[in-house]
Amino acid sequence: MSLNALMRWLKPREMVFFDLLEAATANAYQSAILFDREIRGGDPARFADLRRQMKDLEHTGDNITRDIMNHLNHTFVTPIDREDIMSLAHAIDDVVDRIHYVCERLILYRIVHVMPAVPEMSSIIVEGVGELVHLIKHLRDMSNQTEIQERIQRVHTLENKADSLYHAALAQIFEDPKDPIELIKWKELLGQIEDATDKVELVAKVVGSTVMKNA
Fold first, then answer.
1. Are 128 and 202 in contact (CB under 8 A)?
2. What digits encode the pLDDT tens for the residues 81-93?
3. pLDDT of 181 above 50
4. All domains of the chain, ordered by start, with CATH?
5. Which residues have a Cβ under 8 Å from the Cβ of 169 and sit 6 or more positions away?
6. Which is nearest to 28 in space by CA: 57, 66, 55, 65?
């Protein structure tokens, strides 16, 4: 048994880290649900309210991440490796940041028509973050290896699907670029949405490596 593992076994575990990571994931899930609902509605008149609500969720995520870092600075023994806690906190926060970025740009770029690929990709984010909600809860008890690996694989499959949608959408906007300004706008927006799915997969990967080290 490593010294770090021994110290964790001997001293009380700081379960607050699991509470905070679960709160961060719940916030990310709420963000994904909100974005998906409004994008699917496709009403530009609602985008300003979407941005306002998403800003609140982004602030909530930042506060949770800050709380995690503060606890790390004042905690000698952590239930899992400090680096893993930091990676998870930042990756979960990045999911919300990417969604928030897109919501800001919907207003800044005065988007009035949403590409068909966007609600398809937003639903993937919802499904992926939903898997993360379960995966983060499994960090408290890493005994169910089969379910953990199945959920990680589902996230990986979802990310591949998002990649395919992203590249198909890129091909579409470059196929007949009537308006170069619109092309630039959507190239950036699609990239940020796809990056959100990458961050979802990163969280799943960190969970997987953490479980392998601690189970």
1. no
2. 999 999 999 999 9
3. yes
4. 3-214 (1.20.58.220)
5. 115, 117, 118, 186, 190
6. 57
